[in-house]
Design goal:
Porin; 3-stranded antiparallel β-sheet; mainly beta
């Protein structure tokens, strides 16, 4: 995969950057690059016995210096043909393409729109119970899941914190590269329904969100008692030598509720895709995140041109410490592209994206962390 920005406004660093992965903070600038989105993934499935299988998926991304991560590692036990239990690590069923986020060949775009598929946690460790059934000509799959997940040293928190986004520690000075996020007590359900031309999914889960970081203090020392600081000592550890961690606050510990509705409508020559999320933070700001995408695809035997739009919005509903309320961060993206299926297991894609940041709410606050940018990218996707 290769891409470059072809216009836009400089962000606070002075560069025109187009984010394509908010979590790993992968982005393109005004020169051709293959690193941000190049990826290698291997998936293995092993039948242990008649009703028991193991599945593993290893992913190495250019944005993460091709350091391999285990995205999937779970066992599936089938009680019957239509009832089974999955135990281990797998993707949270958040989005329409959650099961295929790392399989570019499975969807039309070069990438799922980053302003919708952006949460820092997309996998979890836990259990999922699935029941399949039919009602007339509809196929249904109902699942319930529980678990937890922690991600450490999240790149995006470093990046956006320096541009006015994300929380600041309630005490101390943040040490770059140490932000951790935990989603505990994950509990949710997912319903999929499909027939000959409609495929729909509904999802809901709740979790307890926590984010912490290492912090440091600067102790000012007056050696001779004249009221003037003679020495500044940096302090990063507690008396027992452990790192000093940021404290809890209404902005760093809260309940999170995720609602999702998505699907596709498959006509003779056209497919319509949609994905809608509504996320509620029970934080000090009462944050709300309504987000959606719409995509239309023309289906030819080989060629698949497509056009789509996605939008993300942050609404602040609680006046925390006099900050104010109202619509805050907002950005939308228009995508135009072409997928060329030149082989049963391979495709070539070209795509143009126009990202518009509308988060400047001055004189209240400037939430436009991303800035406008336009991107041209080319991808070669294949499965084997």
């Amino acid at each position: 995969m290769v891409g470059k920005t072809i216009g836009g406004d400089p962000d606070p660093t002075g560069a025109v950057e187009f984010p394509v992965d908010f979590y790993d903070y992968a982005f393109y600038q005004n020169e051709w690059s293959m690193e941000p989105e190049s990826m290698i993934a291997l998936q293995a499935r092993m039948d242990v016995m008649e009703n028991l299988t193991f599945t593993a998926q290893l992913v190495a991304k250019g944005a993460d210096d091709f350091s391999p991560d285990i995205d999937w590692l779970y066992a599936t036990y089938r009680f019957s043909d239509d009832l089974y239990l999955m135990l281990g690590r797998r993707n949270l069923p958040m989005y329409y393409f959650s099961e295929y986020m790392e399989v570019g060949f499975a969807y039309p775009w070069v990438r799922p729109p980053a302003n919708l598929y952006w949460w820092e946690i997309t996998q979890f460790n836990g259990a999922t119970l699935v029941k399949d059934f039919m009602v007339e000509d509809w196929n249904f799959s109902l699942s319930g899941f529980v678990g937890h997940e922690t991600q450490k040293n999240i790149k995006s928190h470093d990046f956006w914190r320096n541009r006015g986004g994300y929380y600041f520690p309630p005490e101390g000075t943040y040490i770059a590269g140490t932000a951790d996020v935990t989603w505990s007590k994950i509990m949710g359900a997912n319903l999929a329904a499909s027939n000959d031309w409609i495929d729909l999914r509904l999802s809901y889960f709740r979790t307890f969100y926590e984010t912490f970081a290492d912090v440091m203090f600067f102790d000012e020392i007056d050696l001779n008692g004249d009221g003037v600081t003679d020495q500044v000592v940096e302090r990063r550890t507690n008396p027992d030598g452990t790192p000093i961690r940021s404290g809890a606050s209404p902005l760093t510990e809260f309940d999170l509720d995720f609602f999702g509705a998505s699907g596709s409508f498959n006509f003779t020559h056209v497919t319509l895709l949609f994905d809608y999320n509504y996320v509620m933070y029970d934080d000090g700001y009462g944050s709300r995140f309504p987000t959606y995408l719409l995509t239309a695809i023309y289906n030819h035997d080989v060629w698949q041109p497509y056009i789509g739009m996605s939008q993300a919005l942050l609404k602040i509903t609680e006046d925390y410490q006099g900050f104010g309320t109202g619509e805050a961060e907002e950005h939308r993206m228009v995508t135009v592209g072409l997928k060329y299926n030149f082989h049963p297991n391979a495709s070539l894609k070209v795509q143009y994206d126009d990202f518009q940041d509308s988060g400047d709410r001055l004189p209240w606050y400037d939430f436009s962390y991303h800035n406008d940018a336009r991107l041209f990218s080319v991808a070669l996707d294949f499965v084997f």
